[in-house]
Structure formats: C-alpha cells, structure tokens
Amino acid sequence: MNLTLKIWRQPxxxxxxxxxxxxxxxxSPDMSFLEMLDTLNEQLNEKGExxxxxxxxxxxxxxxxxxxxxxxxxxxxEVTTTCQLHMRSFKDxxxxxxxxxxxxxxxxxxxxxxxxxxFDRIIQSGGFISANTGSAPEANSVPAPRDKAMRAFNVAxxxxxxxxxxxxxxxxxxxxxxxxxxxxxxxxxxxxxRDSRVVGMVGQHDHEGFGxxxxxxxxxxxxxxxxxxDVISQLNKDLRTAMKHGH
Amino acid sequence: MAxxxxxxxxxxxxxxxxxxxxxxxxxxxxxxxxxxxVFGEPMLPENGLLWIVRVLLIVALVTHVYAAVVLxxxxxxxxTSKYVVKKNLASSLSSRTMRWGGLTIxxxxxxxxxxxxxxxxxxxxxxxxxxxxxxxxxxxxxxxWMSIIYLLAMFALGMHLHHGTWSAMQTLGLTGTARARARxxxxxxxxxxxxxxxFALVPLSVLTGIVSK
Lengths: 247, 213
Prior knowledge:
By secondary structure, chain A is an alpha+beta fold. Helix content of chain A is 34%, strand content 11%.
C-alpha cells in the first residue's frame, strides 16, 4: 500500500505546530498503524529527517499509552486502540490525517505525544482505595454482589488513554472520571471514601481545565473499551449524594 | 442547567395546555386567558399567579443562561487548538446545536412577549389587540410569515428539548443503566414531539382554516 500522511509536527510544547505531508510506500495491510508509522520513521531516518514522535508501550491494546486522532476519529476508524488498528482498515492511495489529542489539559510534548499527567493527578485526588499494606487479605472475606462486581469489572477496563477527552466537543474527561467513580463505588471496599473520592476527582478534573459534560456522547463512541455513558450518570448521582452529605 | 431546564419544561406543558384551548372556541380561550389573571383571587391580587410564575421563570432563565455561559467558556478554554479534521460519530444534531438553538429560542421568546403579552407587534392595528387574545392569535397566524416564524421557533424548541430532556436526566443521575438511558432518550423524543408539535398545531390550524374567527 502507498499512502499520503498528513501529520501534525510540533518540536516542543511551546513551539507552534503545523501539518506536514509525507508519502509512505510499501505498507502491508497486516501492519498495525504504529508499525506503519515505524516504517515512515525509517524512511525519514534514511533521508536524515527528524522522525515523528508518538507514544506507544504494550502494543497489545491494554496499556492506554498510544493514542492519536486519525482522520478525525480518536484511535481511528475501529473500536480499539491505535496499536490494534491495522492498515487493512485503509485503502491503497488513501490520505490519512494524524493529529495529537487536542486538549489544553493534555499539552503536546512533541508531534503526536501529549502529556496525560492530568489523568494521574485526577487519580491521585481520590481514584484509589486506601488499604493497609501487608499480607493480602482473604479475597472471600468481603462479599461483592455479582451484578455490582460485573459492572465494576466492565468499567475497570478503562485504560486512561484519553480518547474520551480527545473526542469530546467540550474537551471534558467525564467518561474517564465516571469510569473510575463507578468502578470503585460499586465495590464494598470503595464505600468508606466514596464521597470524598467523587468530590476530589471532580474538583481536580475542573482544576486541570477539562471542559464540562453536556451529555453529547462522542466520548463513549470513541472509547476503545466501550465504557457506557451511564458512568457519567453515576458520577453525577454520587456527586449529588456527597453534596447531600455535606461535602 | 438540568433543574432550570425542567422548570421551563413544566411551564411549557401548562402553556401548551392553554394554547390548545383555542380548539374549544373564542369564548373558552378568552375565558381561560382571563382566568389566569384572576387566578387565586381574592387570596392573590390580580395577576398574582402570573407574577409568581414570571418570577420563577426569570430565576430559571438567569440560572440556565449562567450555566450555559460557564459551560461554553469552559469548553472554549479546554481546547484552544482546534482539530484539522474532526468527525462526529455518535452525537445528535440537537446535542451539537444546544448553544445556538438556545439563543434562537431566547430571541424568539422576546419576540413572542412583544407580540402576545405587550402587544407591540400587532398585525391588525384596528383590532382589539391583547384585550381579545383569541382574535389576536387568529389574525396573527393568518399571516403566513408570522406562522413561519412560530413554526421555525417550534422546530428549534423541539431540537432543544430532544437533547435537553435526556441530558437533564443524565445530569440528575437518573440514567444509571442501559435501560434507563434508552428510556431517557425515548423521553427526549416524546417530549420534543409532543410539546413542539402541540404548540405548532395552533398556527397550522389557523393556516389551514380549522381555527378561524
């Protein structure tokens, strides 16, 4: 396959960026999107040009490190992560536009690499369950109802990739925060900190400069883990309950 | 945003009920309009109920607009560098036009008050004006362009209610399951069609001659 790539190039956070056009040849349909970019970078290296910087880690669709806007869609046209997107989803001769996640809370580090530290700070402000260290407790000592456990597991699949923010017209991270709130709030271990968790995480979310949710629904369509919109309803409900409790 | 929106929704249902009185004829409609002014007398002064409702609506409007301005400003600041290419995959047209649609409805509401409440926009200067609401209504909607303004406004209102109803339920945390979400989205359609459609029946009926003087 031969492709035309339009890629956002930006040397660092403070420098202005621009779209650059590249031709890439000899792409196999079996390559992943990241392998296609690797091929482009080899060609750029041979010509002595600066390779395109992009994030990747596991390349198995489970770490959430890779992420870029491909033809206006977060992680491209398939419901998966960029590393699990294969070039058979494109046609020979296609022009593909590649951009970084665009959100002021995710500053561009270089080219397609963004700093998602804002998500880490949201997690630090409540997205955890405090536990004493030491030997692991007996797993069956705290029973969890099956339906709640299943819901918690389903939304715990959120890998924090940031696609929800990238796709949201408001630049909101409510799907991410909602997934964490629902995941921890459904389980018995999450109850003691349930109120302070939602207040802390929403406060940090707003402080980081993410937008407010208007329930448009682009986030859930972009989510590679198919986190449903009802986690945002859960987030709102938990916040309402916390406020009723005087937070 | 959600609570003030639901206040508007409740008001719209009552308003639409009053409008549909037009099908009961001249006297019935005017009697209803008059009764609204003397409602609760002598416990309430004349226009007492109307002013209670007006104050409630003004508070809801200020809250609604304030929330909208804050959300819009936050969205602007959250993404100062725009995408070169951005596709909309799952969002409804109504969800993406809430801000401009809301502004359209606000402009329409001012026009509507000037028309039927203040009586500054009067298609028939020789008529009785706001003193005879039924005749003012029929004289107004017999003008095709006046009806078009109202029908377009009702389309904008329907769009706003379609997303607004579901969004309010989601904001209030009432859509915690897939079934509840589907129900809320259906409710959005039902509310939009019933309310916007119910209001639109009046100008359409005048245009087609079902309702006349």
